[in-house]
Amino acid sequence: MGALKDLARSFSRLTQEEVDLFCLEYGIDKQFNPTAPACDASIDKPIPGFIALYCRHFEWSNLRYPFSFFVLNLLEYYRVSFGQVQPKGMARVLHFEVLCRALGYDPSLLLFRRFFRLAKNGDWFTFENTKVDTCLVSSMVTTLGSWKNTFFWVSESIIPFKMVWRHPDAVLNDPEPSESELNDAFLSAIRGCPSRVRPFPEHLLVLLGVSNIWAKVDRDPVLMRNGLVMSALDFIKSDDTSDVVFEDAPTVPDENVVVRTSEQRFGGSGYVSVANVKGFTKSNVPKPSTRRLSRRLLKAAPQSTSTEPVDLSDDIEASEDQAEVEAEKEKELVVHGKKVRGKKGVATPVQGSSSRDAGGLDPEGVYVPAWQVKNDDTFKDAAVCEDALSHLAFSVVLIAHKTLGNSSSQLLSYLPNLVLMPSTMLLLVLST
């Protein structure tokens, strides 16, 4: 078994004293009950009501608490947990945020997806460069060191949503956004900043609002080179910063950097879920491969009457990080959340619209479910169950209406049988 295929056999060696000291250093409050795992507890088996955090995410990947809204949005969108992301993948996420803030912009999930994609990394996940735009990572520090055996539990209340443990065979990515969907000035600026991913000094992270670990209340961090103030962007783009001096200067009135940037981080309120982020709407339907933008998308709105097949497969490749440890022997395809080898799945698009209420339905039309359920969802999630049932119940009424007409007595007797039909059977009946 390869070095990255041992998640279930990787256990934390941290003692409770070490966890307490680590949380004190990185400002993780005791109210979240940081707890050392039992010696036989793997990271995918946290205490009920808790989630896992890797120490290396903080020490090496530049993650800080309170977590930024951007990091939380990203985890919510990809439906992946902190404990599933390999440190180099998390480092790319924070590097993107740091770079955006150094350019004077708030990090955008939409823009992030232009440059990075989720990828499998053995039993873990990572984020790697896409192939559609400039590579923002010019190089990366390779000395990651030991990381799989240093994790701990914290209360799930440390984040504002229910964190999902992503299924390893779930479809990975939506298509990358096109240039027309992005801010032209932002896109142009970040393209000119390929830079080295590495652990950054606390001075820089505080200056950019990623960290609030700063004890000098009336002073702000300053970067100095050759007696002159150095910008955060110049520091990030410089491979050699050994001559940079970290100093501090009096805070400008009403411009305290820690206070001013606190609105970028989740401190118990102010979080906006992915579905409501301005300029970004989470997809409600299965998407095709991220590397084939010309494929048509399924939409819950009127479309042409074409019955052209839609390829819903998504190629899963070994990540760039995993290549450092072991080479994948073959590629795998994920089709509707199932693992298949050497074969692509094809589905027929569904036409019509589900936007009308029951009274305005066309008996001859084809029903399109406009729900939030995606390929990688499971019915262990209460919200998924509620959404599916609410739409399936509507499907049942439509089938009965088509099959039995307006006879209420026949309708009532037939409904129990329809309710028990699997969702796939319901769709087949609706398409006839």
Automatic annotation (TrEMBL):
Residues 311-321 have a biased composition (Acidic residues). Residues 283-321 are annotated as: Disordered. It comes from the Eukaryota. Residues 289-298 have a biased composition (Basic residues). Residues 61-118 form the Transposase (putative) gypsy type domain. InterPro entries: Transposase_28. It holds the Pfam family Transposase_28. This is Transposase (putative) gypsy type domain-containing protein. It comes from Helianthus annuus (Common sunflower).
